[in-house]
TrEMBL record:
Organism from which the protein derives: Echinops telfairi (Lesser hedgehog tenrec)
Identification of the protein by name: Transmembrane protein 267
Entry keyword Transmembrane: yes
Subcellular location: Membrane
Source species, domain of life: Eukaryota
Gene assigned in the entry: TMEM267
Amino acid sequence: MASETEKTHALLQSCSTESLLSSFGLGIFCLVADRLLQFSTIQQNTWLRALSDNAVHCVIGMWSWAVVIGVKKKTDLGEIILAGFLASIIDIDHFFLAGSLSLKAALTLPRRPSLHCSTVIPIVALALKLAMHLFKLKDSWCFLPWMLFISWTSHHIRDGIRHGLWLCPFGKTSPVPFWLYVIITSSLPHICSFVMCLTGTRQVLSSKHGIRIDV
Ligand SMILES: [Zn+2]
């Protein structure tokens, strides 16, 4: 169990000036990216629209994780790329449900595909945490359930602007207001860092990534 001093240090790191500026930048990116996607050149080409939309999910996932760990070493890039991959890969379930590689079929589904159900996120993250505990995976992978949680949640919140959040089996919410999406996305890394402090995960990350205290 982490000592109180370690917890305090980890908490200070998650609120460092650098980290707050990075998440402010993330909020600006969210504001700008979806405006840029409205350009008619992108909107008129289905593939370009789908790929750029997915690329924005990927960048948000990468940026969010970068806020959590801070980027200090080249090796941190591997984790950041993995976070982006997790944030964008879930759109593949459109093709699974369509049973086809046709983009038209994937975009005109009769219902939303399973990985877009938001109640799946905590279930998969907890199952992953349990599996890692059972199989005694090393501390160096303790970040994975958190990374999955942040990457998938950021994807769902952004999709929620158009479709609302699908909380199966309870139904779905109305569309998420754009301003709320920006606030949630930019504060999500800090909220998760805070909970990670309480569970001791962030202290492991801090020593792994050498995050310095900058307050
Ligand atoms: Zn999606």
